[in-house]
Amino acid sequence: MKQIGHILFLLGILLAFGAGIGFQHPWLPVGLALFGVFVGLVNVVDVDANKFLITGIALEVSASAFKQFAFIGAAMSDVMIFVGGALLVVALRVLFGTALSTLWRTQE
Protein backbone atom coordinates (compact mmCIF):
# COMPACT_ATOMS: atom_id res chain seq x y z
CA MET A 1 0.00 0.00 0.00
CA LYS A 2 2.89 2.35 0.75
CA GLN A 3 4.29 1.98 -2.79
CA ILE A 4 0.89 2.78 -4.28
CA GLY A 5 0.81 6.00 -2.27
CA HIS A 6 4.27 7.00 -3.48
CA ILE A 7 3.38 6.22 -7.08
CA LEU A 8 0.16 8.24 -6.82
CA PHE A 9 2.06 11.18 -5.34
CA LEU A 10 4.64 11.15 -8.13
CA LEU A 11 1.87 10.79 -10.71
CA GLY A 12 0.06 13.76 -9.18
CA ILE A 13 3.19 15.92 -9.27
CA LEU A 14 3.81 15.03 -12.92
CA LEU A 15 0.15 15.58 -13.80
CA ALA A 16 0.07 18.95 -12.04
CA PHE A 17 3.32 20.10 -13.64
CA GLY A 18 2.19 18.96 -17.09
CA ALA A 19 -1.21 20.56 -16.66
CA GLY A 20 0.38 23.85 -15.69
CA ILE A 21 2.56 23.84 -18.78
CA GLY A 22 0.06 22.94 -21.46
CA PHE A 23 -3.47 22.04 -20.41
CA GLN A 24 -5.91 24.45 -18.80
CA HIS A 25 -9.46 23.65 -17.82
CA PRO A 26 -11.76 25.48 -15.38
CA TRP A 27 -12.16 22.35 -13.23
CA LEU A 28 -8.47 21.47 -13.20
CA PRO A 29 -7.63 23.14 -9.86
CA VAL A 30 -10.57 21.39 -8.19
CA GLY A 31 -9.50 18.04 -9.62
CA LEU A 32 -5.90 18.55 -8.53
CA ALA A 33 -6.96 19.54 -5.01
CA LEU A 34 -9.26 16.53 -4.68
CA PHE A 35 -6.55 14.22 -6.02
CA GLY A 36 -4.16 15.78 -3.48
CA VAL A 37 -6.62 15.06 -0.67
CA PHE A 38 -6.93 11.46 -1.87
CA VAL A 39 -3.16 11.06 -2.01
CA GLY A 40 -2.90 12.57 1.47
CA LEU A 41 -5.34 9.97 2.77
CA VAL A 42 -3.57 7.07 1.07
CA ASN A 43 0.06 8.10 1.17
CA VAL A 44 1.18 9.17 4.59
CA VAL A 45 1.34 6.91 7.62
CA ASP A 46 1.97 8.25 11.11
CA VAL A 47 5.72 7.68 10.90
CA ASP A 48 6.12 9.84 7.77
CA ALA A 49 3.78 12.69 8.77
CA ASN A 50 6.34 15.16 10.12
CA LYS A 51 8.76 14.56 7.29
CA PHE A 52 5.96 14.95 4.72
CA LEU A 53 4.71 18.18 6.31
CA ILE A 54 8.13 19.80 6.47
CA THR A 55 9.00 18.77 2.92
CA GLY A 56 5.61 19.87 1.62
CA ILE A 57 5.89 23.27 3.27
CA ALA A 58 9.37 23.70 1.79
CA LEU A 59 8.00 22.79 -1.64
CA GLU A 60 5.13 25.25 -1.27
CA VAL A 61 7.48 28.07 -0.28
CA SER A 62 10.02 27.36 -3.01
CA ALA A 63 7.28 26.98 -5.64
CA SER A 64 5.84 30.36 -4.73
CA ALA A 65 9.17 31.94 -5.67
CA PHE A 66 8.59 30.90 -9.29
CA LYS A 67 5.18 32.58 -9.61
CA GLN A 68 6.73 35.63 -11.26
CA PHE A 69 7.84 33.58 -14.27
CA ALA A 70 4.99 32.97 -16.68
CA PHE A 71 5.99 29.56 -18.02
CA ILE A 72 7.17 27.80 -14.89
CA GLY A 73 4.89 29.81 -12.58
CA ALA A 74 1.71 28.25 -13.99
CA ALA A 75 3.13 24.76 -13.58
CA MET A 76 4.29 25.41 -10.03
CA SER A 77 0.92 26.93 -9.15
CA ASP A 78 -0.79 23.67 -10.12
CA VAL A 79 1.81 21.69 -8.17
CA MET A 80 1.08 23.87 -5.13
CA ILE A 81 -2.65 23.13 -5.44
CA PHE A 82 -2.02 19.38 -5.57
CA VAL A 83 0.49 19.34 -2.71
CA GLY A 84 -1.70 21.71 -0.68
CA GLY A 85 -4.54 19.19 -0.73
CA ALA A 86 -2.28 16.45 0.55
CA LEU A 87 -0.77 18.74 3.18
CA LEU A 88 -4.23 19.67 4.43
CA VAL A 89 -5.16 16.05 5.10
CA VAL A 90 -1.88 15.20 6.79
CA ALA A 91 -1.89 18.37 8.92
CA LEU A 92 -5.44 17.67 10.08
CA ARG A 93 -4.52 14.06 10.86
CA VAL A 94 -1.55 15.17 12.98
CA LEU A 95 -3.54 17.96 14.64
CA PHE A 96 -6.43 15.73 15.66
CA GLY A 97 -4.09 12.92 16.67
CA THR A 98 -2.19 15.27 18.96
CA ALA A 99 -5.36 16.77 20.40
CA LEU A 100 -6.91 13.37 21.07
CA SER A 101 -3.78 11.95 22.64
CA THR A 102 -3.55 14.98 24.92
CA LEU A 103 -7.21 14.63 25.83
CA TRP A 104 -6.83 10.97 26.77
CA ARG A 105 -3.72 11.70 28.85
CA THR A 106 -5.43 14.44 30.87
CA GLN A 107 -8.35 12.22 31.84
CA GLU A 108 -6.25 9.42 33.35
Structure description:
The protein is an all-alpha fold. It has one domain (2-106). 83% of the residues lie in helices and 0% in strands. The protein has helices at residues 2-22, 28-43, 49-64, 70-106. Helix 1 (2-22) runs antiparallel to helix 2 and helix 1 (2-22) runs antiparallel to helix 4 (70-106). The N and C termini lie far apart (35 Å). The mean pLDDT is 82.
List the helices and strands and how they pair.
Blueprint (H helix, E strand, L loop, with lengths): L1 H21 L5 H16 L5 H16 L5 H37 L2
Rough outline: elongated
- The mean pLDDT is 82
The unreliable regions are none
SS-derived structural category: mainly alpha
What are its keywords?
4 helices, mainly alpha, 83% helix, 108 residues
Summarize the structure.
This protein has helices at 2-22, 28-43, 49-64, 70-106. It is mostly helical and 108 residues long.
